[in-house]
Design goal:
It comes from Streptomyces lanatus. By secondary structure, the chain is mainly alpha-helical. The chain has helices at residues 3-24, 26-30, 41-60, 65-78, 80-89, 95-122.
């Protein structure tokens, strides 16, 4: 399978795995929900898990791939504040945890670019 055909499926797999972990281990995500959001952190954790699963399905299907990939790029931008919160909350933790928390921040950029690339590679095919 050519790389251009694998990339959307890998992105869908990443999104699906992340979505599943929101239900399998919600407590770790609850702590990342900014307190400025209304309602229960658990509600936001489950909602973001559902969103990731829906995005995964959309990216996996050629017919909805472009729109879902663009939505995934927007989603990756939208969850950035949670990653910032994690980095700030973990700034006094041991060095490996602190490095992981701060290391997540720049990783959003390749995720956004990957999703946009999947959308762009879909143009003209649907």
């Amino acid at each position: 399978m050519p790389r251009s055909q694998r990339s959307p499926l890998l992105l869908a797999g990443l999104l699906a795995t992340a979505g599943i972990t929101h239900f399998a281990s919600p407590r770790q995500y609850d702590a990342l929900v900014p307190s400025s959001l209304p309602g229960s952190p658990r509600t936001w954790t489950y909602a973001s898990g559902v969103a990731e699963l829906a995005l995964a399905a959309g990216v996996a299907l050629p017919r909805t791939r472009k729109a879902a990939a663009l939505a995934a790029a927007a989603f990756f931008v939208g969850v950035f504040p949670a990653n910032v919160k994690m980095a700030l909350d973990w700034r006094d933790r041991p060095a490996p945890q602190k490095a992981a928390a701060f290391g997540r921040l720049p990783l959003q950029i390749p995720l956004v670019l990957w999703a946009r690339g999947v959308a762009k590679s879909t143009e003209g095919r649907a």
